[in-house]
Design brief:
about 130 residues, alpha+beta, Arc Repressor Mutant, subunit A, 3-stranded antiparallel beta sheet, 3 strands
């Protein structure tokens, strides 16, 4: 559930709404597994759960509850954004250093032409004929 909530949340949408009954279709895990994962995250203090009461005229009670989840602490949206920003800056510095870094002092050696290549072939032919 940690990875699911992390994937579904971002700075523009810091919470995700999920019905446990949708866990199988959306993420391939059973509702019980999703519930166990949320319970574990709750016990560790890594998830915040917000309940939203919504009108539902067809419901016998006239309303239903939506559950919204967000990660907290070092896994929260703000913390992840800050880490991504730091990582992007470090990557840009690394790329700039690799592109504009110190030039190699060693120059490539000029290639030698095929000097005497014809002569060697001629001598090889003469040897083959027994000269």
């Amino acid at each position: 559930m940690l990875l699911i909530i992390a994937k579904e949340t971002n700075p523009k949408s810091p919470e995700m709404r999920m019905r446990l009954s949708d866990a199988r279709d959306w993420y391939g895990i059973s509702p019980k597994t999703a519930q166990n994962g949320l319970n574990n995250l709750r016990d560790l203090g890594l998830v915040h759960e917000r309940k939203q009461r919504v009108k539902a005229p067809l419901s016998p009670t006239g309303s239903t509850t939506h559950f919204w989840y967000s990660l907290t602490g070092s896994y929260g949206t703000e913390a992840r954004s800050a880490l991504q920003s730091r990582a992007n800056k470090a990557r840009k510095r690394r790329d700039a250093a690799a592109t504009h870094g110190p030039k190699s002092k060693q120059l490539a050696k000029p290639m030698k032409g095929n000097r005497g290549g014809k002569k060697k072939r001629a001598n090889a032919g003469a040897r083959a004929e027994g000269r």
